[in-house]
């Protein structure tokens, strides 16, 4: 049996069911409001999600180390055709929307200290960044549904122009002076941000005009 065929025959995704964690992970942003709703008196609950995202995850990343396991190229077509992975991507979308809407409605209907309010806003915004990563991947799918779900999800963070600009602008002019979405050597993330955010919006507008 050729090596490539043998690799494909024996390959098993050992993290197959661990990917389900990505569906429930966005719900971590609701810990503070949910604890408050259930009667918790401590405002520290509103910082639990921030601690998880900015301390817990980096710590786990450090402890677990780099994951060097990748499927062989011969196994990739079968993995791409497996509807299980696509279903996980789609399942994350309503969870992201629920997390944002739940937090927004809670902040609008409950009186909270300013620091609890701010913590909830920051952690919700962090989740929206997670959603944009998902939208990016879905926007590259060949099927109509994948692209539309990706486009719908970019609206979650008020970044609906991303799919237009990224696929038709960034990929065409990447790493050139004409691309605001390509960072320059030695450029700080803040300088890049203030150039990319308006630049990407206006280029998407031009592409659609």
State the helical fraction.
Answer: 55-70%
User: Mean pLDDT, as a whole number?
Assistant: 92
* SS summary, helix count: 10
Helix-strand category: mainly alpha
| Model regions low in confidence, pLDDT < 50 over at least 5 residues | none
| Pattern of helices and strands | HHHHHHHHHH
Strand content: under 5%
Shape: globular
Number of strands: 0
Number of domains: 2
How big is the Rg?
20 Å
Distance linking N and C termini: 55 Å
User: Could you describe the largest sheet, including whether it forms a barrel?
Assistant: none
Description of the molecule:
The chain is mainly alpha-helical and 209 residues long. The protein has two domains: 3-158, no CATH class; 161-209, no CATH class. Helix content is 66%, strand content 0%. The chain contains ten helices and no strands. It has helices spanning 3-10, 21-24, 31-37, 48-64, 76-81, 83-109, 114-139, 144-154, 162-173, 189-208. α7 packs antiparallel against α8 (144-154). 21% of the residues are buried. The mean pLDDT is 92.
């Amino acid at each position: 049996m050729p090596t490539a065929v043998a690799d494909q025959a024996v390959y098993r995704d050992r993290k197959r069911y661990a990917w389900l964690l990505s569906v429930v992970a966005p719900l971590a942003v609701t810990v503070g409001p949910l604890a408050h709703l259930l009667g918790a008196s401590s405002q520290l609950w509103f910082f639990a999600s921030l601690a998880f995202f900015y301390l817990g995850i980096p710590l786990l990343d450090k402890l677990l180390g780099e994951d060097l396991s990748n499927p062989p190229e011969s196994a990739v077509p079968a993995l791409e055709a497996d509807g299980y992975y696509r279903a996980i991507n789609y399942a994350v979308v309503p969870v992201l929307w629920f997390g944002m809407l739940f937090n927004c409605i809670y902040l609008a209907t409950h009186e909270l200290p300013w620091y609890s309010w701010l913590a909830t806003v920051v952690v919700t915004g962090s989740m929206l960044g997670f959603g944009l990563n998902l939208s990016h991947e879905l926007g590259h799918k060949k099927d109509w549904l994948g692209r539309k779900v990706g486009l719908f999800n970019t609206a979650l963070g008020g970044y609906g122009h991303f799919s237009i600009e990224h696929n038709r602008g960034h990929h065409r002019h990447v790493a050139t002076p004409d691309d605001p979405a390509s960072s320059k050597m030695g450029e700080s993330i803040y300088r890049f941000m203030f150039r990319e955010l308006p630049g990407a919006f206006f280029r998407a507008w031009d592409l659609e005009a």
